[in-house]
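note to self — DONT lose this again. spent like an hour looking for the file last time. sequence + predicted structure for the chain T wanted, 956 res
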Amino acid sequence: MGEEGKNRRGAERLIVGVVLGCFFLSGISGLIYEVVWTRMLILVFGSTTFAVSTILTAYMGGLALGSFLAGQHIDRSARPLRVYGWLEIGIGLYGLAVPWIFSGLLPIYKVFWSVFHPSFYAFSLIRFALIFIVLSIPTTLMGATLPVLSKFYAREQGKVGLRVGLLYALNTIGAVVGSFGAGFFLLPGVGEHSTTLIAVAVNILLGVVLLGMDWVKGDKREGRERRVVERHSPLSDLPTSQPKGLLVLAAFGVSGFAAMVYQVAWSRVLSLIIGSSVYGFSIMLTTFLVGLALGSFICSGLVDRLRRRILTFSILQVMIALSAFSALYLFRELPYLFFVMFYKIAHSQNLLFFTKFLLAFMVMFIPTLLMGAVFPLVIKIYTTEVRKVGRFVGKAYSANTLGAVLGSFSGGYIMIPLLGIQRSILFAVILNLLLAAAFVPLIEVRRKLSKVSYAPVLATLLAFVFLFTPRWDPVLMSSGMPVYVSELPENLSREGFFDNFSSEKVKELFYREGVDTTVIVNKIGDNISLRVNGKSDASNSGDMETQVLLGHYPLLFSKGLDDVLVIGMGSGVTVGSIERYPVKRVNCVEIESSIIEATRFFDEVNNRPLEDPRTRIFVNDGRNYLLVTPDKFDVIASEPSNPWMTGCSKLFTREFFETAAKRLKKGGIMGQWLQLYSLTADDLKSIMKTFHSVFPEVLIFYGDIPVDLILLGSQERFEMDGESLRSKLSRKEVRDDLERIGIRGLEDLLGRFVMGTKGVERFTQGAVENTDDNALIEFSAPKHMFIRNFFNFDDYYQASKGISEHLANYGDSEQERRDFLERILVILTRIREKTIYAEKHYKNGLRNLQADEYDKTALELKRVVELNPEFDEAHSRLGLVYQRMGKQDEAISHLQRALEINPRDAATHNNLGSIYYLRGMLEEAANEFKEALKIDPDLAEAHSNLGGVYVKKRDD
């Protein structure tokens, strides 16, 4: 009998172990579904934060509903394992049907748009209703799993906190694995469709295993809970009365609300520091879940032994508040920490990911660890009868999830736009402290601690939070470290780093923390730039050529000039350039309304498009707008931000180009801005091939040389008709607009030609198309953000046979045509040399410099600055070489030119000061050495040189 009992207990432990493993795997599949379904629905409903929040709100709403419903009924079931098995199979079967269900939403969605023309917010409510209907079935099934398994696993009152806490921790750890695995391995490795099939297979396999376990268990009596009587200590503070139980549920809901406000706000902060790529979002979500899982796991082992649980709950809320408030002081340091870690740690892509994880953990880990501890504690407080554990767990989990739903929605769409990121976090901090204070009347205490002393402590903490909130620095936080960190000198001191973003150097003209992004307009000298989440997306200087030409190239080649669509407002320059033509209507779709406000700071260069009655602004996602609008256009000009950004990346896929092509009139033209920096040659070929797969005829021109391309696509053959182009260029408004960027005639315009249809076909041979399913560019481009690769495209030029095969009507005689073509070829050759050979000569010069061959170095570097006069490093090196050759005048000239281009180069200031010193120009030398030390206080050579100046002055 003893041996039989041991065998039975061993078999029971095996079954429990298998079931717990299943719940871990269920957490993995659940997060995979959330990630993949969100991506799929974004393609239907748009990638605005409002759409994403709507999806997540509906998702969590279903979890809350499922938890509540299961909690109401599972306690009457004698076989919870069988119920859990069918739940998993149901989730898997629904996951299999998802692609067909989601595709069926689009016609319904378009009907609502075309019939009712709802406002943005009304349309968002329609989105919510549709998404909730679609997701209610699987998320209800997912939400039901925790109370169902709690019924099976938590059968002893004395271990309720331990068992339910472990279940929650296991499932959340699974969610961590699912989030990380989907974001870093499955989606980039096998695509959305195959990732979904993997999750489906996991669910169905789990269901089969669980049904098998239920069958093996056999005896229904094993499903009935053993009645174990727990001897309660007289110090137990369990809320046996209904009002106390409701208060605990309400508190758990408020706690979930605050947690999601934190998550939304932290995500906005961290997107400024670690970037808004798909990997950045995976890092943030994974970090948040890791904290919750570990907190629940640790607390579940302690909670059943705790005596003053109400007091513990109150203290946890205080600790969450204080840790979240302390993180506010860390925010100002985050850009500098990223800068330091980038140069000290991030020597590879994997180490760069590690750096970003580390920064996310610094902000989120301690608060989320404490948040995770709340769950098992509340379950222990609230569950007073083990035979109703399913009901108690269901109610508690649904209350917390409902609070999370409201927190996610309110945080993103009410609080951050109205209060800002930092004040939203402050609001959640105060909420946690008030929650702690609300439980003071319920606390049972002895000896030294009393309610009378605890309440003033909370009041003092509230006052401290109000009085000592740190200042939020918009310029520093929007400095774009994940994009521009490599442009800062590696040896920059802490003082020098912060000095780069001081109010003396950078003037803040505009700042908004919008619904979707953080938008700032900065002014440095005469340069005004628009930054979105820290990334510069438009300016009145460096981006002007591309912004202007994206408006002109498609309009110059288009036969129709009635209706134009621009995707992305930016600085408004492109829209303003388009309106130099006699167009009838210009629709502009902009995802972030704050950018439209910021556009007014570029009125001096954008021709004031917001004041033009032909301009119509739509606040929406560009892809979503194309899906629902019935309008068709002569020209569509798309100017999204970089392909590595997770929302913008969806505007470079085959499906997006196909959607745009359907909205073009016959003979219409698609214009696409494509940034070359941070793209490998393979990525560039992929985007070009994808574009060409939709548009049979393609022309490609340079925007800003050599960093931006403008792709033109059409279903009909392009013809560069000289007479037609000259006729359009004769319009004064068009001519004046182009002259401001150095385009003074047709030759200058066509001289930026890169390649046509045949050239694209040659260049992209063997390339893989970028689709919604493989998201090739979205996962590849973020890995190459710090690579300078736009100088190495020999095959890029070799693919093109030249411009002559695309020209027509460009001269009356053979001589005129030959002369015209020769003038264009001169410009083309100059551009080619600038983009390819400048970098080659520079590398040759560095090799010669290392060998102390100064004459050869000077020849190479001189060729570099002839090809690319704005190459500051080449000027600086050439100045150093001339200094060593004894050619002081030439050295001073090039060093001064280098500082005109980049005045923040400490080494160049030091070298220039050294020449002034040798010439006896002590004041000028001292000024240069001082400037070098302002930039880099640790530059030992500048300290030594400045000391030499002072000694020389004393001796003189």
